[in-house]
Every structure is written in C-alpha cells, then in structure tokens.
Amino acid sequence: MTSEVRNKIIVTLIFLILISIPFGMKKYEEFTSDHFDANMEMAIDRYGFFLEDVTESAGVNFIHRRVTVDDKLSHILPQISSVGASVSVVDFNNDGLPDFYLTNSEFGELNALYKNMGDGTFVDVAAEMGIADLNIPGQGASMGSVWGDFNNSGYEDLFLYRWGRPELFRNESGEGFTRVTEEAGFPDYVNANTALWLDYNGNGYLDLFIGGYYHEDVNLFELASTQMMPDSYEYATNGGLNYLFENQGDGTFVDVSERVGLQETRRWTLAAAAADINDSGFPDIILANDYGVDEIFINRNGESFFNTGQEAGLGFVPKSGMSVSIGDVMNQNSFAIYITNISEAGVLMQGNNLWVPARQISEEIPRFRNLAGNMGVEIGEWGYAGRFIDLNNSGNLDLYVANGYVSAEPDTDYWYDYARVVGGNRAVIIDANNWPAMNNRTFSGYQTNKIWLNDGAGRFREVARSVGGDLNLDSRSVAYADFFGTGSLDLIVANQHQPAKIYRNHPKPKHNWIGFQLQGTKSNRSAIGATVILHRGDSITRAFVSGGDAFSSQSQRAVHFGLGDRTDVDKVEIRWPSGTVQFVDGLELNQYHKITEASE
Amino acid sequence: MGNFQLTDSFKNFKVPPGLIGPLLITAVVVAAHLSFGILDGWKKFAVALGVAVITESVLHKIVTGKWRNLSSAYISGNSAGILVRSPMIWPFALCAAISIASKYVFRFRDTHIWNPTNFGIVVMLIIASDSMAVLSIQWGSNMWAMLVIWLVGFLVISKVKLFHICAVYMVSFFAFAWVRSVYSGGLFLAEVAPITGPMYQLFVLFMITDPKTTVSTKNGRMIVAFLIALVEMFFRLGEAVYAPFYALFIVGPIALIIDKLWQERQANVAVNSET
Q: Which of 350-409 (A) contact B at CB < 8 A?
C-alpha cells in the first residue's frame, strides 16, 4: 500500500467518523433514555409523580375559539389569531379552594370562571358573576387575565386584557363583579397579550403592567392598513407600547409608563414576569419579546426602570420570546429565568433560554448565563408557556413547557412559505398582503408538551410520555394550583381553538412539602411580590408571590415548596413588598400556613 | 519627499488576490455583527473558525506532508459560523470540519468538486436537521445596510472578474421567481423575498463564485449560474427552504466534472491534431 493510498484511507475514515457523529449521539441518547408508556405505578416509583387527565370527571368542558379579525387578514387568520387561550388561578370567594378563569376569544363566545366545589368537580359561574360575556365586537377579544386585590378589600379583583379595551372588575365580596374600567382610566385600545400586577413603588397598592404586541393604533377588526406585521423577524421596532398604571389607592390609576422609562422601545412583548431579581426590595420586570431581544427592566427605588437586558446577558441574541418564568431552579437562593422560543427541526433553531445567575455586574445589575443547553431544557418546539413547577415535591423545580402553534390539515406544512416571507426585507415582511395564504395548512402543529424533570444535580430529563402528560394540542397557557387539596400541584392547560385540560397530580406519598398563604397589611393585601426564603439544612431556596407570569397565565397565590425526604425546615424568611422582613419557624410540614404581614 | 513616497506606495498597493475573499467576509461579519448582532455569539463563531483552520491544517499535513495557506479554510469557517444557526456549539464545529474534510475526500482530477461550506451545510441538514438550521432571516430591517453589503460585495467580486456569475444568477433568480409566481398563483414579492436576506448574500458572494469550484470558461460559468437558479426553482416548487444550497450541491460538482472532462478532451484533440 502506497503512502498516498494510506493517507487517503485515513482521511476518508476521519470523514466517515465526522458524518456519523449525529447518528451516534442519537443512538447514545436512545440507549440512555428509560422512557416507558404512561403508567401510574411505574411513573410514581421512578419519577415521583403521575398526571391524570381528569378534565371530564372534573366537569370542565371549556373549548377555546380563536377570534375572527378583519377580512384583509383572513388568508393568515390562524397565525394572526394564534393566541387568546389563557388560564389564571384565583380563590375568588375566599373559600380556601383555588378556582380558575379561562378566556375565550371569538366574539360571542364566553369566558369561564370555574368554581372549585371541593369534591373534585368544578362549576362555571362566570355568567352569574358577570364576567362571562366579554368577547364583544367594538369592545375586544379576550387574550388573558390576572387577579389581584387592587383595592385591598380582601377579595381578588379581575383584570382582563384584550385586543381591544382592557377591563377591570371589582370583586364584590365573592358574590359578583362590578366593572370599574372607566374609573380606573385605562386606554381605549391595546393589543395586549400580557399583563401582571405588581407594587412597583412599594406603597401597598397593586399597580398594573400591560404589554403591547401589535401596535396600539392597529385595530385588528377594522384594519386601516395591512402594513401592520413586524418590520423584521428578529429586529422588529414596530410593536405595541408597554404600559405601567400606578394605583392611586382610590380606584383610579395613572399612566406612568413614559415617566418611569417603560416606553423607550417598541418591541413585540408577548410575556412578562416581575420579581425582585437583584434584592433591591423592588420588583423588576422581565419581558419576553417576539421578533427581537428580551429585556430586563431594573426597578430603581420604586421611581423608575432602566433596561439592562444587554448588560445582564440576555438582551443580545434576538429570538422569539414567548414566555417568562422565574424560579430558584438551582436552589441557590437566587432567581433564574426561563424564556421559551421557537425550535423547528431544520428550519429555525432558536432554543429556549434558561438564564441562571452568574456574577453580579454591580449591586444593581445582575448577570445571567444561558445554561439551557447544559441542563437539557433547550430544545422545545414552537414554545408558549414554560413554567417552573415542582411536580414531584422533590424540592427541585421542574419545567412544564407548552408547545404547538397551528394544528390544521395533517401532513401539510406552512413553514416553507413562512420562511420565505420572514427572510425578506422590511418592505416585504411588514405587509400582511405579502404573506402567503395558509390554506388550512399545519404550522408547527401537533407538537407535544414537554415535562422536564430536574434531577437536582444540574440536569433535566424529559418524561412527559411516561408520566401521563404528553398533551399534543396547541397549548398556550399553563397554570398550577393544589386544586384537589392533596399537597401536590395540579395543572391546567389552556389550548388554542381547542379544549382546556386539567391534570390531577399523584405525587410520591413519601415526599414532604410546605406552603404559605400570605396576606399583606402594609404591603398589598395579595402579597404579590413577596419573596419567601426557606432555610432547610445547608440549603437555602426562595420563591415569590407572582402577579402573572409565563404566557398569559397566573398560578395559585400560595407559595409551595417541595421538600423531598426532608422532615423539617429550619426557618422561613419573608420579605414583604413593604420592606418588612419577617422570620417564622417551628412550622409543621405538609400544610399551607396562613401568614399575615407583621405590623412592626 | 517622505509623504510622496508614502502616497505613491499607497497608490501602488494592491490587495493580494488570495486575501480578497478573507478580507471581504471579515468585513461582512464584523459590520453585520456590530450593527445587528447577527452571530449566535462570538464563541460559536470562533469554534467554527478554529475547527475549520485546524481541520485544514491536519488533513493537508496528512495528505501532502506539508502545511498550507489557510485563507480558504478561513472563509469556510466564517461561512459556517454565520450560516449555521443552532443553540448548541457542536453543529458549528461539525459543519466546519465536514466542510473542510470534503475537500480531501471528494476529488476529481486532483481538485475538490464541492464548495466546502455548501457541502457542509447540505450534509448537516441531512444528518443533523434536528439540531441546526441555516441563517434565513434578515440582518435588521434596514434596506440601506442590505444594499451596502451587496454593493461592496459586487465591487470586490468585479475585482476578481467573477461578477458575471452573480449577475446571471440574480437575473435568473428573478425570472424564475416570476415563473414560480405564475405557476403557483402566489405573490411575486413573496417569491423574491428570500434574495433580500443575508443567506443569499453569502450564497451569491461566496459560494457560487468560489474560484476553486467554478468551471474554467466565462460562458460555462454563466451557464452553470443559470442552471443553479433553474434547479433551485424546482426545489422551491417542492417547498425546500434551503433550495439554493441543494441546487448548488447538485449542479456544482456535475458541472465541474464535465468541465474537467471537456478540458481533457480539448487537450487530447489539440495533441492529436499536432501529431
């Protein structure tokens, strides 16, 4: 054999090894995976929980219908009206049982408030409470809702955001709702796809953040111009304004958005969450923006916000931000941020982001590193709500990620046409007339939601198929609550143009947990924004009371910690929005503790 | 006197032809990233670049026993670093390595027959499509930025006398876009939209004009450019998102082999007629 032939063989072998690498990686993954078809006993034994679809037996028969917009957009209606299925959890009548509210969108279709009857069933009481018929031509189509006690009355009030006029409903002692929108002073028209309650200035009254998606001048139902699509797929600058309404404490709100620095950009905000991520004592706002970079607005002493997305590390690579969830995923007493994006094999691989705290840039500005790839939670599909939740009470936050865009005619695909137009210049992409007709084609549809189980050692494992949660509807919004009083977190999933699903969680009985129902006194009564820090042995972990997060979702108000095999907790520290810090110890496990903010 | 000499030598300064490609692609990458952050990150880009250079060095050393000029690997590494879109790092490295390795494996008459990055991208789309995609969106929404890149690119390509390839391809693309719109009943603007994106800038300025994988005559190069656009049309009718890469992947090597055989035949005819 000549040296030339030998060298040729060596080079060819190297080439063959190179092209076999992806195949080898897939085979290794298959070899190491231990998936099995849904089986309650095996799932509880191996993963510590099982999700049972109890939608029918719970009496939940809600079907979302997408809204019909102006005829000029009818050729791409499924993607324009691809949102609006949302769920928010509330105990609206203070009976101690979590209820939930589902939004519909099509005009004439009703929203639903499912009252928890305490026996595993729910009854829709939205009509009798006066908050059902809210999808009305000329007024708006529901996109989502958040609950908060804006008047500190002791009952949770409803804020409904729409493509149209936002609405505020005051809770009348759990017996009905009164519309108080005019007094509140909200704008006449916003194309909102996210909102959240927060007390941004710590004055004891809940303020309201609203995120705009389409430009507020675009009336989607009476379109003046078809030039209303994003002006770039990754650098869009023509989205809706974001708003912050400051609660005056007398039932009115004042628009302070511009003054506090929240209207410097016009990104297409799809999701928002607020938590004190730099321990300043004030809630910061994290935004997931479609067609652009995500943003972190740091709260400066309750007076203003500044955008530090780039300095913090997460505002540089533009993606399609769809959801924001905040949680102490590493149990290191600091918050990580999970933002879903879009991944479609071979066409668009953005990957989801798990932003884990790194070194601080300064006392004010946190710094994050994207560890989604390292931890195995990067490749979803067309993501919507991505939510931290401890499904097996192990003490480690898992992830539930909703996937799927438009499931229409099977075995058809709109991606080619989509890729053509979104790759085009501003002059092309901005005009809806240039977008090819969908013709009932599927677009990243029939995708399965993911359940990533946290092993507590820095890796997640996808287990949806084995634990009964492999839903393949066009899921949008996901919320959790202990609906059945079992000490585990059950799930409700709102699906676009499809039925909502409710899952009862069967956790490993040996796993302990502890929960806290907080009530503010100096702080807002809902205690939204309060941080609870749990000291357990050598580990310290934290959670917070959220006023709305993920994608168009709000989960139970009570803070829930799984404890695994641990049989006690050392102490609990509560940092209230008012600045009060309260310590509690000697707490019993496996129950929710009602804690009222100390007056001193 | 000193100033005169400096001006004189500046006027006489010419960029060596071998450096034009590397300089152009470096300018495009730096300008586009600083303006719009087009890269997934410098780390991934550096990995693609580093792996391309290392693979070239190692394989060339194995095959010839010598070290070689790395400008070609530099361009391939840049192209892979820009074109590959993946949240993971390994597809960048693998694409760069496969691109370079292809040059040493698939050869005809002692020359490689595929544009390395075109080969790497297409193979990666076949073997690792669940882990990567290809750049297919805009660098910002500024029309001027796009026009400047095209203009500078064409000026540089003209310098190396290959502009005719770009011109024929682009005219053909627009013509076939019209044919597609008539055939499918779709909008002409939607058909031409992709060529306004950066994927096509890289494809036109760096891939189809790669001197090593283009045919020897000017007429031949223009025919090949037309054929690439023609084959691309069929891939587009089949709704292949990355149609131009597939078209070049098929047309490029066939054209090159035919060209080599044709050259040999002509040489033989010349020798025979002399004897």
A: 350-351, 372-373, 378-379
